[in-house]
Amino acid sequence: xxxxxxxxxxxxxxxxxxxxxxxxxxxxxxxxxxxxxxxxxxxxxxxxxxxxxxxxxxxxxxxxxxxxxxxxxxxxxxxxxxxxxxxxxxxxxxxxxxxxxxxxxxxxxxxxxxxxxxxxxxxxxxxxxxxxxxxxxxxxxxxxxxxxxxxxxxxxxxxxxxxxxxxxxxxxxxxxxxxxxxxxxxxxxxxxxxxxxxxxxxxxxxxxxxxxxxxxxxxxxxxxxxxxxxxxxxxxxxxxxxxxxxxxxxxxxxxxxxxxxxxxxxxxxxxxxxxxxxxxxxxxxxxxxxxxxxxxxxxxx
Length: 301
Known about the structure:
Number of helices: 9
Strand content: 15-25%
Number of strands: 11
Shape: rod-shaped
Largest sheet: 7 strands, mixed
Distance between the termini: 58 Å
Helix content: 25-40%
Radius of gyration: 32 Å
């Protein structure tokens, strides 16, 4: 018994007329009669009472009609879902992001555009530092991730990166700090300042970028206080524990007594990227990256 047999049976059961059922199915009446006979032989049950004047369902036939309709409907649903999955219209997409990424307007725009375009896809958002996102991508625990451009990637061929937006790295300090009076802070002026910053083992690309920036200016930041969250760093700066260098979008955290100042280095910038596995064939990922490319086609958005 296959779906073809069931479609033939349902057509005859609904039409109660072999000729009309054959026309509806687009086949000849003899093949239809043979199909019904084969189905009855396989099931060991007579499905129709046939006379010269009429065709009627038997009791087993009526029971099979209900089941056959459900089976055919489920088969059609399965086919539709499979086709939609192949187009990336259903399923689950796991998206990583850094803690500060949602403060960049482009990231909420991308997420909102994807949700509107693919409402039946379950979007799972996972907050992770950049390096941990790359590990999660490699382990297939994430599908894509918004990361800070890393200075070093252990296996560059394993990933593809799309630049989403570039932003400045800013000096962050208390409003009463002597350097806060300047419009632009010389990077070298932070040489002897205590820093509030991410621990080296936390996995943020910002840590690598800031330490490389300071090294180019001839010093290593004196980290007096570790903190794993940008908001904690800013709060501790407000408490007088030191200064920091953070991505520009965090100036939206308008904490009383804290100011953000540009640095005098042309290299004081950071790039948010979308990372994915190389050779990724998932239609879910393809649809997401298409939206990213449309909304953020080049640096500067």
